[in-house]
Amino acid sequence: MTLSKPEQSRLVVIHGPMFAGKSTEIVRRVGEARTRGAHVLVVKPERDTRYAADAVVTHAGERIEAANARVAADILPLVAREVPQPALVVIDEIHFFASDAVAPIHALLARGISVVVAGCDIDHFGEIFAPFDALLPRADERVHKQGVCARCGAPSTHSERLVPATDRIIIGGAAEFIATCAACFRPSRR
Ligand SMILES: [Zn+2]
After folding, report:
1. Domain ranges of the chain
2. Cα 150 to averaged position of ligand 1 atoms, centre (Å)
3. Which of 61, 60, 24, 57 is nearest to 145 (CA)?
4. What is the pLDDT along the chain (190 residues), one digit of tens a residue?
5. How far apart are CA 151 and CA 9, in angstroms?
6. Do 119 and 147 touch, CB atoms closer than 8 A?
7. Under 8 Å between Cβ of 39 and 113
8. What is the bridge-based pairing of β-strands 141-144 and 11-15?
């Protein structure tokens, strides 16, 4: 897929493991954009109900309102019902939508709407999580968030599943996952 977009729209990709501050980065950027007077729509997957059904909530407890998208195809209709049209659409936990997220993101950029996405770029098998394979090369700005490896204290890059699971997408928090560096990471087995 080729990406053609007006000069004024930008794609920002925030990526990294769990517990690295990705949602905090989103909350900060939404606050900055709204301070500038931009109309911002925040979208999150409906399945991610760990903390709230209608908000992006950081592990530290900060929250901003968010519209729920059950599937990636819900994103454009959610944008269309906004008045005025958003200048910025922010999508958290984008890996829940996998490759289905790419087309709506490109459609928004083509309309001159900037997009900020955030999510886990490596799954608990240790493989690149779609849609980051498609989005990272096309991003105008890449923000690689890292936390601290739970085993050795080095910068974290991976999200390790502590309880065995074969599904790629698992909703979980501190009880089910730790973040580790690449050297300490123990991938889930299929
Ligand atoms: Zn480590």
Report:
1. 11-146
2. 7
3. 24
4. 455 555 589 999 999 999 999 999 999 999 999 999 999 999 999 875 555 568 888 777 788 999 999 999 999 999 999 999 999 999 999 999 999 999 999 999 999 999 999 999 999 999 999 999 999 999 999 999 999 999 999 999 999 999 877 777 766 676 789 999 999 999 998 7
5. 40
6. no
7. no
8. parallel
Of 140, 137, 67, 129, nearest in space to 99 by CA = 129
162 alpha carbon – ligand 1 mean position (Å) = 15
- Pair of tokens at residue 104: 């709506």
Q: Is the peptide bond before 77 cis (omega within 30 degrees of 0)?
A: no
Quote the ligand 1 centre to 158 CA distance (angstroms): 10
- Catalytic residue numbers? 93
Give the 3-state secondary structure of residue 122: strand
For ligand 1, the distance from its centroid to the CA atom of residue 161, given in whole angstroms, is 15
Query: What is the topology classification, in CATH, of domain 11-146?
Result: Rossmann fold (3.40.50)
DSSP 8-class letter at 135? H
